[in-house]
Amino acid sequence: MSGNSFGKLFTVTTFGESHGKALGCIIDGCPPGIEISEEEIQVDLDRRKPGTSKFTTQRKEPDQVEILSGVFEGKTTGTSIGMIIHNTDQRSKDYSEIKETFRPNHADYSYEHKYGARDYRGGGRSSARETAMRVAAGSVAKKYLKQRYGIEIRGYMSQLGPIKTEKLDWEQVHQNPFFCPDVDKLPELEDYMKKLRKSGDSIGAKITIVASGMPPGLGEPVFDRLDADLAHALMSINAVKGIEIGDGFGSIEQKGSEHRDELSPEGFLSNHSGGVAGGITTGQDLIAHIALKPTSSILIPGKSINKAGEPIDVITKGRHDPCVGIRATPIAEAMVAMVVMDHVLRHRAQNADVTTSVPVIPSSVDV
Amino acid sequence: MSGNSFGKLFTVTTFGESHGKALGCIIDGCPPGIEISEEEIQVDLDRRKPGTSKFTTQRKEPDQVEILSGVFEGKTTGTSIGMIIHNTDQRSKDYSEIKETFRPNHADYSYEHKYGARDYRGGGRSSARETAMRVAAGSVAKKYLKQRYGIEIRGYMSQLGPIKTEKLDWEQVHQNPFFCPDVDKLPELEDYMKKLRKSGDSIGAKITIVASGMPPGLGEPVFDRLDADLAHALMSINAVKGIEIGDGFGSIEQKGSEHRDELSPEGFLSNHSGGVAGGITTGQDLIAHIALKPTSSILIPGKSINKAGEPIDVITKGRHDPCVGIRATPIAEAMVAMVVMDHVLRHRAQNADVTTSVPVIPSSVDV
Amino acid sequence: MSGNSFGKLFTVTTFGESHGKALGCIIDGCPPGIEISEEEIQVDLDRRKPGTSKFTTQRKEPDQVEILSGVFEGKTTGTSIGMIIHNTDQRSKDYSEIKETFRPNHADYSYEHKYGARDYRGGGRSSARETAMRVAAGSVAKKYLKQRYGIEIRGYMSQLGPIKTEKLDWEQVHQNPFFCPDVDKLPELEDYMKKLRKSGDSIGAKITIVASGMPPGLGEPVFDRLDADLAHALMSINAVKGIEIGDGFGSIEQKGSEHRDELSPEGFLSNHSGGVAGGITTGQDLIAHIALKPTSSILIPGKSINKAGEPIDVITKGRHDPCVGIRATPIAEAMVAMVVMDHVLRHRAQNADVTTSVPVIPSSVDV
Amino acid sequence: MSGNSFGKLFTVTTFGESHGKALGCIIDGCPPGIEISEEEIQVDLDRRKPGTSKFTTQRKEPDQVEILSGVFEGKTTGTSIGMIIHNTDQRSKDYSEIKETFRPNHADYSYEHKYGARDYRGGGRSSARETAMRVAAGSVAKKYLKQRYGIEIRGYMSQLGPIKTEKLDWEQVHQNPFFCPDVDKLPELEDYMKKLRKSGDSIGAKITIVASGMPPGLGEPVFDRLDADLAHALMSINAVKGIEIGDGFGSIEQKGSEHRDELSPEGFLSNHSGGVAGGITTGQDLIAHIALKPTSSILIPGKSINKAGEPIDVITKGRHDPCVGIRATPIAEAMVAMVVMDHVLRHRAQNADVTTSVPVIPSSVDV
Asked: How far is CA D158 from CA B327, D178, D207, D290, in A?
């Protein structure tokens, strides 16, 4: 009820604060028989972890995951999977300032009113450090979806501040620290980020996630449409302020004759809808875009108040990402994987007996 | 599990198809002692119901709600509230064509693959007719939030195709069939819609919802952030393709020094975040924008396939809204009301003992 | 959250009060393609309905069920099923006495403290009249389990006051008003009930439910053991005060060498455990016993207090069952059916890929 | 969905196997501001832990709990609480025999059919070792209920095999290894257990739980009655085969005039109902009894089959409790605490505004 769990059938519950002893999660509902190892999960965690380039926070965390239960002789058993990551670089710095003040656009003020107190060390539970466990849990879902159904979930950065990527080369995405699929934009991105860091400011970003190999028929009608669950999942990521499925806000100015994705025996003729109709997959690629706000922690002084309600000036020192969007790609992939996994299980529960003679047409659209 | 329920503590479960006998819902978790009548709920239903202007579908449905349980001597009892609306204008037309074919961008093809069959009469469960019950349930939440907490939830159309509203006059919103807050745009809107209908095409729209009078501290951390639950709720509305909280996609190109909402004893100095920080309300106005795609049912022939997989041409006859966005305002208000209500109850459950000496600062920003 | 829903994947939500307009329910998660009709459901409802013999309440209710959605062309569609039963014999009697007083062992006093008010007409929501919708929903589950898996769920009265049945003849159960499987006990039962009615008193009873044809492997470990969910389901029936799985309280004095159900290639050698081990079915018959307390509404005056806290004497007039246990058999069957159905769906969700070479041994024990 | 979570608002999710690396749990929904320490939780864990007397298993586990998150500066923060207990005495014995065979009345055979494989080391997830985390989580609930509401939850052994306790002296319960409240029965109990161990057999037991200081009005109508949730909670404990609320199975032979608990301004005149009416507390002591079967692991050879379906003889060696009921008292207390806590939070969510002029009458009955 208090929001630390996600998913109805593939349920991930997390704990842990930025500067606490450890982060952890429990996956409940994972199918048995999946080969899974700490090494495989670590691959995804390493994509998210801090300190890997000069464009992210310099906090050094190995983010080494340990599986505590639910995996036996190399395979999932079907019982709950416990995983843990110990925090190693939580600095015992002086928090006296942050303790008494509210940083603008951070959760400090809202947490104080919700709980009457807060773990002020590095943002406590509101820190994006919590997303490490999402990546670990999503990694298990990604693997199963790929092996069992051929579903592949991948993301890339599609925009950083004013710089929009123009080409989509999946090979490139994992070869640069920006998750940028357009090699031609790298010099511009590096240059922009260097200037940004020097200015002590931060910037927003846009991430795009694509799930390919989707079968038609996943999702539920009404409230738990696949796109509604995706919106929930993606908006739950720190700093996300907008979600689009398919053409998203572009649909406002489109006419019906343009937007509707016509069908032919050879495949769909377009994919404006982003792979869902009535909340249920069409078999086309599932496409979602998310907007991330600029990091709130910047070196430029800002106005705020302290706990007594008096006006103060705040500078957020410490180690921060100048663009939180950069490391958001693996997190968004993990959330999409959890949603698709959940709907795969839901579908099997209710529709195990379903057969149809209607052919599955191909997704003929390049993304 | 199958998606016909929304909300964890204020839970609304719906049933009903476009051309079935009736639509209905059950509200579970409603506080006792709320004065509620069919007449009050009807006010909201009348705002959504079809056939009230020449710019919406001409289906004639009185959408007369009947309360069957959970209200005694004019007040809610705290037990489950059953409500029903009988369908009266479901035409016994010839469905043989629609039965064998898949209308582009409708849920026909995806439902067929999910369930192996479908109620093809008017879209069955995938029809937006289902949203009538959301409006009825949301009406109860809206009333309680207003009376008990002074929270007011209102929406308006902010864009229809290329026409963007420029002024926000709440009085205007309910005086024209477009939910348009800018009286100067009415002639342009009417003109646009007339031409659109003549062309047999449809158009997208953008709706904005504002919740004012919000207390700080509502929402949960991590997965059930208030904005994440709002995204879930709003994306579950038929035809919605995009969600923004506060500045939304505009945040991508903003710098941290611009985006962060500074605090002062006199109030917040801006509201780029749309009223949430870390997923929890700041006490500022909650602001969400949604993008609705153009209606898929248009008179212009389109390509598709039939159940045998053969290519066909489809014309969607019948009574349809040329812009589904027009009637979406009361639906979006209802969904926001359900989410806020749910979080009010969640907050009371966990944080009943919380006190804080931190002052609540005003929301100083005009929306 | 407020307790009007049951089941995680096959979810039944109900509404309705004893003397309100109607009772209703929504089934969410029902598989598509099940042939179902109002006539079939009515068969189960008729077994529960009041006024069918002189040993039950004389309230006349046809309990005629109407399916409002979710069934199309005679089959379930997979979307939510709405059902309704209109109350027809709610008497507009004078409730002024009951309104101001608390009947002993009724929910009057506890509801008043919970909600601050209550629908006092015939007990409102606390009346067992609510169970009609459980029987309707359970009927759908029973049919599916029988047709798809060969699982049969049946119940009988095993004890009424001091009279214990000794023979189990399933044919007999539906041929007498007591659901008694032992024809030799009928004269004694009739005699006992006649005297009881004359005395104005009431009596308790014991009901036994057997699910045969169970596959091994249903149920979840830890908190949602199949027997734990059964206990939840059965204890939620009005007047139930005790639950036993298999030997139940008899196990206290058993030794391990006696209780353990040994296995052989020809089948299990006993069924003390009632068909579950570690919360998961063994494939043996699932056996549960429930104890129902005597009806609280009796003609013999009792002490109580009124709303002002003053001492009063109460006589509960009106139409009541002298033994609520009599009509509990179809209700208990319905609840067991819902639980088994829910676990069938859960099992399919998680374990769709499971195969094993371990043979299924027969349940060799006669119940 | 897969059964490793309990509670709707105060939600406890556990992981861990008998011979895995660690056991752990996450509490979600705990109110903020509760003073809690590892030392306090350890007190309850020490009551359950193995090896403390010659009448329980000789496995040596310190069961040392570590709090990993959700507690800051000695108080709960309102965010998820992660706790862990490392296994220290999991022996690397030869499991080759147990791996290929199914121990009678254990979960071996049912798990194999459910999951297609199992962690056979010490029963894996089906071991009662899992209950350690329930005790840890329940300890937090117990403390809050006591401090905030004056609710006290205590249990005792009321029967071991043929030996029934006759006196209830709460002081005695924690001064002997049997949780026996009747000092006069101790010699008989010790003698019985010595003979039992010598015979290599095991025995069942009965535990009684009493929650005193209950306010009236807790619980939900219909499916989530407080007693239904208690039945769920208690039946989920390993080896439990029966549940009684109040008089339980004794109610079968009672008349209404005997069973109903009359009210007077000075208090209730009896407590046959065990503190609930209509599923909602009356303010009387909540009383539940549970029946635990004899341990399945005994030294006396038993018949079974192996994975190939061939007949075999099984002897369960290793370290086992001859009466699992003995250590069940703190586990049952923990489960009752979780249920009451959950309903306290539910009640606050929905009924925060409720006031009534109806006086609360005392529970005048000694238990």
From this structure: 65, 10, 5, 9
C293 is in an annotated binding site: yes
Q: What are phi and psi of C150, to 5 degrees?
A: 70, 20
Beta bridge partners, D366, equal none
- Of the candidates C27, C273, C288, the one whose C-alpha atom is nearest the C-alpha of residue C142 is C27
Burial of C262 (C-beta count, 10 Å sphere; 0-12/13-18/19+): middle
DSSP A228-285: HHHHHHHHTSTTEEEEEETTGGGGGG-BHHHHS--EETTEES--TTTTEETTEE-SSP
For B91-130, how does the pLDDT look when each residue is reduced to its tens digit (9 = 90+)? Answer: 666 677 788 999 999 999 999 999 999 999 989 999 999 9
Interface contact flag, A349 C353, Cβ < 8 Å: no
Residue entry with tokens 């800018």? B182
Distance CA B161, CA B256 (A): 31
Nearest to A4 among D23, D26, D33 (CB): D26
The answer for residues whose C-beta is within 8 angstroms of residue C251's C-beta and 6 or more apart is C259, C272, D204, D241, D242, D291, D292, D293, D294
**pLDDT tens across B182-220, in order?**
999 999 999 999 999 999 999 999 999 999 999 999 999
Both tokens of D31, joined, read 């109110």
Measured distance between the N- and C-terminal CA atoms of chain B, rounded to whole angstroms: 37
* Assigned token pair, B125: 């469960």
Kindly indicate whether the domain formed by A5-351 is annotated with CATH number 3.60.150.10: yes
Beta strands B11-15 and B22-28, pairing class: antiparallel
Report the DSSP beta bridge partners of residue A82. A26
Residues on chain A touching D115 (C-beta within 8 angstroms): 32-33, 77-78
- Give burial (CB, 10 Å; 0-12/13-18/19+) of B312: middle
- pLDDT score of D59: 77
In D, which residues are within 8 Å of B222 by CB distance?
80
- As assigned by CATH, the class of the D95-351 domain is alpha beta
What gap in Å lies between CA C363 and CA A27, rounded to an integer?
34
- What is the pTM assigned to this prediction? 0.97
A367 CB burial (10 A radius; 0-12, 13-18, 19+): middle
Contact residues of A toward C, CB < 8 A:
1, 8-9, 29-33, 78-80, 148, 221-222, 345-346, 348-354
Burial class (CB in 10 A: 0-12, 13-18, 19+), C147: exposed
Residues of D in contact with B148 (CB under 8 A): 353
- Nearest C-alpha of chain D: how many angstroms from B212? 22
Continuous segment of H or E residues that includes residue D109: helix D108-115
Nearest CA distance, D73 vs chain C (angstrom): 32
